[in-house]
Amino acid sequence: MSTDSSTAIPQSPRVKRRDILLAGGALGLASMMPSLPATARTATAAAQSGSAPAAGRRRLGSLEVSPVGLGCQWLPGPKKGTVSDFYTSTLDRGEAIRLIRSAVDRGVTLIDTAEMYGPFISEDIVGEALQAVRDQVALETKFGGDIDPDTGKMGERGMNSRPEHIRRAVEGCLKRLRTDRIDLLYQHRVDPTVPIEDVAGVVKDLMAEGKVLNWGLSEPGIQTIRRAHAEQPLAAIQNEYSMLWRGAEAEVLPLCEELGIGFVCWSPLGMGFLSGKMNADSRFGSGASFDLQPGAGSFDFRALVPRFEPENLKSNMALYAVVVKWAHRKEAAPAQIALAWLLAQRPWIVPIPGTTKIAHMEQNVGAASITFSAAELQEINSDIASVEIHGARLPKEEEHVVGADTPPKQ
Known about the structure:
Blueprint lengths: L16 H7 L16 H9 L9 E3 L2 E3 L4 E2 L3 E2 L5 E3 L5 E3 H13 L4 E3 L8 H10 L7 E6 L1 E3 L6 E6 L3 H15 L6 E4 L8 H13 L6 E4 L3 H10 L4 E5 L11 H8 L2 E5 L43 H21 L3 H12 L3 E3 L6 H9 L7 H12 L10 H4 L11
Parallel strand pairs: 3-7, 7-8, 8-11, 11-12, 12-13, 13-14, 14-15
Antiparallel strand pairs: 1-2, 4-5, 5-6, 9-10
Helix pairs in contact: 2-11, 3-4, 3-11, 5-6, 6-7, 9-10
């Protein structure tokens, strides 16, 4: 992001649990630190010369998509006509639209958003940006927040996947996205009160009506994945996955391989950490407020994340040193190394980095041209494994939400 990561955020009231739920799923991308190799410009220039080759496309259910997608996640900005990401970077609505259109021009065919982001603002921007090129992209969005479909106000439940609510939410998504179908629809987080079979049932009906083409889950429990897939085959799981957080490797990725489910990575750049936006002295404040209404103060999700606390961040910089080492070796930018590493893990993995800069988007697209030999992949995996990551990946208020299973169907 273009924001100075070292700028502290003033102390503010404790964040409510439902606000943490909305903040979950934040994507990160940032500009490079001054110490990056000058040779990184080579790979960036190559990225700007054309789109990703067809041979590099990846499969998510019935969809064939570019190896690197684009995450679109914005909140109301501090001024009318502006939006902000989850890390305090701000851009005009028109700039956001140009960013999305430029991504499509560069061959990006997977565009990700959600009703929660705003709420509704990100979907509305994506819908406007893609009107003229709708058939060139696979569009994915998410339902599941306890959000009033008419007003955007949050309810007290946090999550709401009751079948009647899902239907209303999807109709709102279709309207804002200016489309007649959603290529990939996710449940954003598990609703602990609704059996996943009930969720799968209403999605199956929406698919029969042609309003949804594929579906998936974000941060679900293992048994919930199995039960959902048995009811209606899943196209993708969207979980956090990066060099900084490799939790998916233990159970989720093997299960996806077993069942033939694709995997979409949110926060593939570790909220900007892996692209070089942070250093050992970066500070994000000791608290944050989160107001979804226009004119809200700045909100930086990283202020809530334990792995970015001062002592943890200092220790975790050892991982960034690994990234820089490989960036020099491959004559690439650190962000490209982080994304190329993800692409090398499985042929059905698709990262969806977010950004506010066209140049950074172009750089991300270029990651698809970076490859690792078998020996190099073994070496970089060993380098990454040698670094112990300190601090949890999410605020404690959200720990029980991710990886949760739904109650059994009675």
